[in-house]
Write a structure and sequence with these properties.
- By secondary structure, the chain is an alpha+beta fold.
- Helix content is 42%, strand content 17%.
- It is built from 15 helices and 16 strands.
- The protein has a 4-stranded mixed sheet, covered by helices on one side. The protein has a 3-stranded antiparallel sheet with strand order 1-2-3, with helices on one face. Strands 12-13-14 form a 3-stranded antiparallel sheet.
- The radius of gyration is 22 Å and the shape is globular.
- The protein starts with a strand and ends with a strand.
- About 2% of the residues have low confidence.
Length: 475
């Protein structure tokens, strides 16, 4: 058998995955496989539940981005009720979503990826974590904690709970925002904005330190998908779903949510529980596209807030109109965090933000509904079908990590080919294979809806089936 390196547990991600790197007899990478080792099941066990319970049920898919599932779900339920929610409710939902973006992006950048970026991909793995970051870069660690805390507290001020709030409901939200809560969130915005500004400045200053990673971390031509306004403005709650190619040429626009299935197919993979969506007009597997911060910034004409627009302009001056390397998911993520705090300030100063008309009432007026939003990790789709009594007869969820599945596999292959060589395992090389996964910030619980995972165990086998090397090293 040819030798295989197995990363049994990709660390610093949400969920559990395994990576196999197959080498040829010369020690070169022959192929790679990204295995999501959890089981997907929410679509099936929600059958029979009333549609209005779906937001609370599907939010439990994930403790990191429950707000994203809440919002996609209530939008699908709004469509089943065939209602237009009151404008104050739409503003409040977007405000909640911006807070979710800020806290989620803070978690991804500071807690999951900053140990690689600030301590080094080749640094001691025992220290390459949030604890090591606190020791070596205490200001960055404090900034990460403070920014995430701001986002979570804003969610709590609005929705009553930081995780799995029941505030967003079909038809709107169940309680207006008080003036006191608005003022408390506004008070925290200047510090949050200063943290994002400082982090962007520091990140841009060290971009030249990662030439190999920038060149090899999923640097490939693909299509991209994301929401934007009719004029191309960046959107995360509303907007139309657009597909573009690697030259920014429009491929498709999904103006009506129910039409998403004309453009998105879902393939199953024999070695993973994660489905592989693809752009139907290009077929499978050629229809590879990317979503999330990199995809959204490629799709958008502009951000729509002053400082984020300036940062987007500099981003494109540095990297081009279409940015292909997945290493720059980190850069795009920070620009989005800046947009999030700016947009929160705009929304909190809207006169209607404390209006008391926040919910529309109705029953079942359509037998299916689709909700599409941008989760922090990318496009999130909830599609429900109901009987005349409103009971779920069928459900389908397409999450960001699914959209990115094919791109993730290509990226892992590219990084492995660049950094993994020979019969001697180098921990830093293996870490880079995991790091490209972290760049996408996958949420594997969202994509597969289960729990559990194996321990860390990397092994390299010879063509004769003998164990040549392993990581971690035996004590």
């Amino acid at each position: 058998m040819p030798p295989t390196i197995t990363i049994n547990h990709v660390t610093r991600i949400e969920g559990h995955a395994r990576i196999d790197i197959h080498l040829n007899d010369l020690g070169k990478v022959a192929s790679t496989q990204f295995h999501v080792t959890q089981f997907r099941g929410f679509e099936k066990f929600t059958e029979g539940r009333p549609y209005y319970e779906m937001p609370a049920i599907t939010a439990r898919i994930c403790g990191i981005c429950p707000v994203s599932h809440l919002l996609a779900s209530v939008k699908a339920c709004d469509a089943i009720m065939a209602v237009q929610i009151p404008e104050p409710a739409a503003l409040l939902r977007e405000l909640l979503h911006c807070a979710q973006f800020v806290q989620s992006h803070a978690l991804s950048f500071f807690h999951l990826s900053a140990p690689d970026l600030l301590l080094g991909f080749d640094s001691d793995p025992a220290l390459r974590n949030i604890v090591g970051l606190i020791e070596k870069h205490p200001e960055a660690a404090r900034d990460g904690i403070a920014l995430r805390k701001f986002g979570q507290q804003a969610i709590e001020r609005m929705a009553g709970e930081r995780i799995h709030p029941s505030w967003t409901v079909p038809g709107g939200v169940n309680k207006p925002l008080s003036a006191d809560a608005r003022d408390h969130i506004l008070t925290g915005l200047p510090i949050a904005k200063s943290i994002v500004r400082r982090t962007l400045k520091n990140f841009k200053a060290m971009l030249d330190d990662f030439p190999e990673e920038s060149a090899a971390f999923g640097n490939m031509p693909t299509a991209y998908a994301g929401l934007s306004g009719l004029d191309g403005e960046f959107k995360i709650y509303d907007g139309v779903l657009r597909f573009i190619d690697n030259a920014a040429k429009p491929l498709a626009t999904v103006a009506k949510p129910l039409e998403y299935s004309k453009y998105i197919g879902e393939a199953t993979m024999p070695d993973s529980y994660l489905k592989a969506p693809y752009f139907k007009p290009l077929g499978y597997p050629e229809g590879i596209y990317r979503v999330g911060p990199l995809g959204r910034l490629n799709v958008a004409a502009r951000m729509g807030t002053p400082e984020a627009d300036a940062e987007l302009e500099e981003y494109r001056e540095r990297l081009g109109r279409i940015v292909q390397s997945s290493f720059f998911y980190h850069y795009a993520r920070l620009i989005e965090a800046l947009y999030g705090v700016e947009r929160m300030e705009e929304l909190l100063n809207e006169p209607l933000i404390t209006d008391t008309h926040v919910r529309a009432e109705a029953g079942v007026n359509a037998n299916q509904g689709v909700g599409i939003i941008e989760a922090p990790r990318g496009v999130l789709i909830h599609h429900y079908k109901v009987d005349d009594n409103g009971a779920i007869t069928w459900a389908n969820l397409i999450v960001a990590t699914g959209h990115n599945n094919l791109a993730l596999n290509h990226s892992i292959r590219q990084v492995a080919e660049q950094f993994v060589d020979g019969a001697q395992l180098k921990e830093g090389a293996v870490n880079r294979v995991s790091a490209v996964v972290r760049a996408y910030d996958p949420c594997l619980s969202c994509s597969t809806h289960a729990y559990g995972g194996p321990a860390v165990d990397l092994r390299l086998w010879s063509p004769q089936g003998e164990l040549v090397d392993s990581w971690p090293k035996p004590e």
